Amino acid sequence: MILNLGRKPVKPTLRREWAQPARTAQELLERLGPEKVLLERAQRRNYAYDGIALGVTPALVILPTSTADVVEVVRFAHQVGLPIVPRGAASGLSGGAVPLEESIVVSFTRMTALSIDPQARIATAQPGVVTYRVSEAARPYGLFYPPDPASFRTSTIGGNLAENAGGPMCFKWGVSGDYVLGLEFVDASGQVHRLERQAYDLVGLLVGSEGTLGLMTEAKLRLEPLPRYTHTLMATFAEVGQAAEAVSQAIAAGAVPSKLEFMDNGCICAVEDYLRLGLPRQAAALLLVDTDGDDPQVVAEELAWVAEACRQHGGQVRLAHDAAEREALWKARRSISPAIGAIKPKRLNEDIAVPRSSLPAVVRAIEALGRQYGLQVVQFGHIGDGNLHPNVLFDPRQDPEEKVWELLHEIARVALRHGGVLSGEHGIGFMKRDFMPEAVDPTTLEALYHLKAAFDPANRLNPGKVLPQTYSPLPESAKLSP
Ligand SMILES: Cc1cc2nc3c(=O)[nH]c(=O)nc-3n(C[C@H](O)[C@H](O)[C@H](O)COP(=O)(O)OP(=O)(O)OC[C@H]3O[C@@H](n4cnc5c(N)ncnc54)[C@H](O)[C@@H]3O)c2cc1C
């Protein structure tokens, strides 16, 4: 057993060109039809990246339109001994959809069937449905689908469920996995399974498994009635600790905000430079808060508790009086990504979650690390859940990428030291897999290896993701094949 702690992620390297004769691929092409199989290298190269990393050009790219197509691909992969990398919109930020060796990429972007059953309040979606489309289709029935990753205009339901994605609404409404009532998936041997939520919860095993246990081909998603009223405020603070304490006090008073977002000074200045919204550049922290519900008095009262808590902790509060003002305030949050993207040519996004009470210490420790490494770090996140996204901004011509990765790992260690976890919502992918022995207790880690071996004994589904390849607590006989 080799334990390799704290190593930086392995950069993907091309192991070999696919040695199989073209005839083999031809067989699959005949079975699926030419429009579903990409053979040209120039086309395949477009499926080697995700939101954070560029990997190896896949040997084949398949664009299935049905579960039956997925079964064909899995059987074919088994026959030719190639691994499978499932892929949604490739907006992932932990390298989950990146092929690390020659593989078959299964891109679900053409599996986009979606239907709404308003009576049962259920949406049935294929994995390639873009997230926001579920709420869009449900809205005419007065319903919506709460999970709202900031990427919801590009990310897919398959990618969301594989990462158990969260979003600004997760504090009140929960994360993607909380809305799955049933799941269809194809296992590593090509068998189709249909799971329902029940006492022993196998759906929960697939959700968040990052494409390593099965290929999800359909999901039944719970819909909620649209809240009739929403109120919004923005508060700015001279100290990060004041913002965190205000949030804790408001929650202790009984407020359950539907959105609760935090931005640090670097983020506030970046958005102000980008949009000139009149945000105070001297503020150390900014909170954006929504309360929602069907009783206007309760919704207003909840927001009043939050406003009062903010004021008591030194916050300057601005209330939105109508939909246009609400929209203007939330524009600041929605602009974070392009705003910080405009500062330096490149950035890498961390994703940690810590107890809310540790947040001030964590934000300060991360600021200090940025200064120590001579790199700019800006921080924002879903503060209700203690979820923080420190972004390291850099110029590869001046800042060696090695140094950036080292800083990212130190940031993850700060989270672990403060009782936090390695990932709040972006998953482990290959970016953080070598950290798992540091972040997860040995018994849980061993259970994860056993689980992987039970679902995918030949290690063919998204190999190299989530679990460190250089460490295995399993006996030789039960080890995953390399
Ligand atoms: C600007 C921006 C903002 C973001 N904001 C958020 C946020 O607020 N909250 C959040 O949680 N994330 C956020 N993300 C990260 C990302 O959008 C999410 O992780 C999202 O869930 C990924 O969806 P995708 O369709 O792009 O999946 P991909 O990136 O294509 O894949 C992600 C993982 O899912 C697996 N996968 C995909 N489809 C299937 C399937 N059908 N069956 C099995 N496995 C599958 C892949 O193998 C991979 O491991 C953000 C990203 C960006 C770029």
How is the topology of this model organized?
Layout (H helix, E strand, L loop, with lengths): L21 H11 L4 E2 L2 H4 L15 E3 L4 H14 L3 E4 L16 E4 L6 E4 L4 E4 L5 H8 L4 E2 L12 H7 L6 H4 L6 E7 L5 E5 L6 H4 L8 E8 L1 E2 L3 E9 L2 H13 L6 E6 H11 L9 E9 L2 H17 L3 E4 L3 H12 L1 H6 L4 E4 L2 E2 L5 H15 L2 E7 L4 E8 L6 H17 L18 H4 L2 H14 L27
Parallel strand pairs: 2-4, 3-4
Antiparallel strand pairs: 1-2, 5-6, 6-10, 7-11, 8-9, 8-10, 12-14, 12-15, 13-14, 13-18, 16-19, 17-19, 18-19
Helix pairs in contact: 1-3, 8-10, 8-13, 13-14
The structure holds flavin-adenine dinucleotide (FAD).
The site of flavin-adenine dinucleotide has 36 residues, from strand 3, helix 5 and strand 10.
Structure description:
- The chain is of the alpha+beta class.
- Among the domains are: 114-225, 2-Layer Sandwich (Uridine Diphospho-n-acetylenolpyruvylglucosamine Reductase, domain 3); 229-338, Alpha-Beta Plaits (2-Layer Sandwich).
- It has 16 helices and 19 strands.
- The strands form 4 sheets. Strands 12, 13, 14, 15, 16, 17, 18 and 19 form an 8-stranded antiparallel β-sheet that branches.
- The radius of gyration is 23 Å and the shape is globular.
- The model is unreliable at 1-16 (pLDDT under 50).
- It binds flavin-adenine dinucleotide.
- Flavin-adenine dinucleotide (FAD) binds at residues 50-51, 85-93, 96-97, 108, 127, 149-151, 155-156, 158-160, 162-163, 165-167, 210-211, 215-216, 337, 425-426, 462.
